[in-house]
Model the fold of this input.
Amino acid sequence: MAKSRFEYVKQFELEDILLPRCWIVIRLDGKGFTRFSEKHSFKKPNDDRALLLMNRCAVEVLREFQDIRIAFGESDEYSFVFSKTSTLYGRRSSKLVSLVTSCFTANYVRWWPEYLPSQPLQSTPVFDGRAVCYPSDEILRDYLSWRQADTHINNQYNTCFWALVHSGKSHTEAQERLKGTLTEHKNELLFSEFGISYTKLPAMYRKGSVVIWSQELKTVKHTEDGTPVQRKVCEPLVCHDDIIGEKFWLSHQEILKC
Amino acid sequence: MAKSRFEYVKQFELEDILLPRCWIVIRLDGKGFTRFSEKHSFKKPNDDRALLLMNRCAVEVLREFQDIRIAFGESDEYSFVFSKTSTLYGRRSSKLVSLVTSCFTANYVRWWPEYLPSQPLQSTPVFDGRAVCYPSDEILRDYLSWRQADTHINNQYNTCFWALVHSGKSHTEAQERLKGTLTEHKNELLFSEFGISYTKLPAMYRKGSVVIWSQELKTVKHTEDGTPVQRKVCEPLVCHDDIIGEKFWLSHQEILKC
Amino acid sequence: MAKSRFEYVKQFELEDILLPRCWIVIRLDGKGFTRFSEKHSFKKPNDDRALLLMNRCAVEVLREFQDIRIAFGESDEYSFVFSKTSTLYGRRSSKLVSLVTSCFTANYVRWWPEYLPSQPLQSTPVFDGRAVCYPSDEILRDYLSWRQADTHINNQYNTCFWALVHSGKSHTEAQERLKGTLTEHKNELLFSEFGISYTKLPAMYRKGSVVIWSQELKTVKHTEDGTPVQRKVCEPLVCHDDIIGEKFWLSHQEILKC
Amino acid sequence: MAKSRFEYVKQFELEDILLPRCWIVIRLDGKGFTRFSEKHSFKKPNDDRALLLMNRCAVEVLREFQDIRIAFGESDEYSFVFSKTSTLYGRRSSKLVSLVTSCFTANYVRWWPEYLPSQPLQSTPVFDGRAVCYPSDEILRDYLSWRQADTHINNQYNTCFWALVHSGKSHTEAQERLKGTLTEHKNELLFSEFGISYTKLPAMYRKGSVVIWSQELKTVKHTEDGTPVQRKVCEPLVCHDDIIGEKFWLSHQEILKC
Done:
């Protein structure tokens, strides 16, 4: 059985290297999650259990790929930002996209019972992924701002929409009611009609979730006389900070450092 | 919060369309599965439970992506062949690679307890994926032959290696013993020293697993008087046929048909 | 002066290899040739001198790149088809595109005075180029048919348009007159109004130009007693055959042979 | 003649857009110029006429593509740097590569008689081209430094080599003599054996050629009473400055400005 006769087929695998010294964003998106979330009775507009499961997956992805500097998630999507100097897997696009997507998905199924114990999986959750390069810190920040601004816009709309629906309106009526309304009006509507103060909603809903590395002192062992030996370890940390303004970046300068 | 100011970052997402009218192979590979298989006490050289789980995942992938014509798996890898006329997701490479990898991985974790009930997951299984285009039927067949020839070579080596190890040799001794041996000698060694007739080993070990579509008559409902109403349905079917020779392709001409 | 400190910039040159075993078409197009042809008083709708110069350039390109199997030209464009098994320059797209474009352009300027002796160059002619892969013989033939069908459509329109203009109509009037007319009507118009029998126009205008390799006996030297020594040599040959139908391909089976 | 039946072949033209907001370098290289320069008796190690012709072509390329910010040339190669914000031809790689290469080549042939009047073209000069993206100003400067450092290294070697050859050594002897010599030794050798003070050689040989835009006052017309009307115009300017150090970039901050 001549193996070598077929070996030539390997040359059809073409290189797909991402430009060096650019930030690499791998963005994942749930496939058909509108349907998936209905099937699993996700609370609308936001289901804490589902969001916390997403965050847990992101934390596990950071643990697996330590070249990730920051991640941002909302709803059924998550973006992972690899250091611009990362040379992981030779910066091959399909390697990075597939591994991150696979790792995230595997954790989603693995930890599902821990976050939604009363809700057995009815169908298999699937995510797609893509890689995008950003050549400068400024543009990378604009990318992250784009996602966080999007989170706000979607959440504000969804909060209104579901408040109307829960109050008895049909989906179509709710849509009609919101057509063309501006940001200010939506907050007003929420307050006047439903007594909801938008800015007091949980930050996770309004700002999405940010995962960064945090240095912590961890007791790694005890000496014979019982004294704890501590070491600084890096652990992924989830927060819901504003990442559009300067403040966050001033307090976390290590994220963009090379 | 001006969303539009950030929207320009979308233009950094570049197209990665796979050449039309080529066969698209998406090949998945387990990441660090040597370690993963040890941690989960996979039987060596072949663990039926693990192989059947891989096959189950492949079947689920075919159910999800019906443009797949044939799949081939061995050990911790699986190749999925999309029809050359498929326009699924506009033939975008990262979409196809990530979705197939994600779907496979999700099923791997989801159905793990069914196939390895006594073996809880100790770590998260991760797969990488890549897309390769093959411009002709002939080259596609050479690709599949390459993988099946590889299955044989690996399995023969592994069967010898683990027979030696199970007989008391160290890993290094087993390696030394096999260095430079030819196919004929390996079969002889297996037979004379261990009484193993290589060709009588299960086809799944020697030939890998092939998944194709099979038309079956299925009872879809019963009429009022109880008569079963049947319909032809396509279902993924796993077999372990030789796909290097002509015979398989003559009996399954629909696979390569456009 | 540390050279090595800067060498890292080489890694930004990413691979752009064209899929193996596909036909490679390099198509060139004149940049701004409407203006260029006016400036150099090209005869309308077809200027023999300009077309013959294009053909000469194509011939020189074939002489330089012998992996080209066939070329097709019309107006200010030319397509060069590299053998699907060609490995010239490792099938790097930018190498092939730039070299073919450069070679064509250099010859265009070099041989201009020979073809348009009374017309000195007033500006610099520039061509763009692109590479396209075609996975099968059938699709390659459809590509070439597409270009030849386009030649016919353009030439028929232009012949009508310029006949109207030369008869005293303005450009706008000529356009108006032709809006929405079908193929049959255009030929009728040409015949009834201008006595032009379309099918009797030169094949070069109607069918474009095809360059293939032709084997010729060539006298390479003479023996002492004066006997000519002949050898078969391959030389590019320009013809204006129909390449849409079967006939051409039956008589020139070597073009698509691997 | 159904045009539409063939139109599908257009979809095989895949996008090759260069990452936005990166500097685009198009680098050209003469094909087989060792042979070309011998055939046309170029003076060794540097032929002023040939270098000035290269520079003239570069100037014409800048005139044609005003998004070019700076160009650098040495020997038979030239690099053109497009503004990182350029959207010329949608940043399509093959468009940019082919047009720049074609424009350069056309000018090379067109202006050849002006720069080498006594030397008719014996063969057709051909250049290849490639596109490379650089994500930051700093890396772009390193690219340019790399080319200028290379100019120095090559020129120093060639100056020694040809001095030895012109003094009667064979090519092989000259190579042997220079094997492994360091920069300092080469300058010493030139001075002690040939009385050549390396640093006094023309800057064009040692530093290569830099083309930038220069603002000049130009008389565009005269008023009725004869007063000249002047306007600032941008014209390409060739210099031979050091572009590795800071000084050049401090005096030409407009080059990197967005």
Q: What stands out?
A: Chain B touches chain A through 56 residues (CB under 8 Å). The two ends of chain B are 51 Å apart (CA to CA).
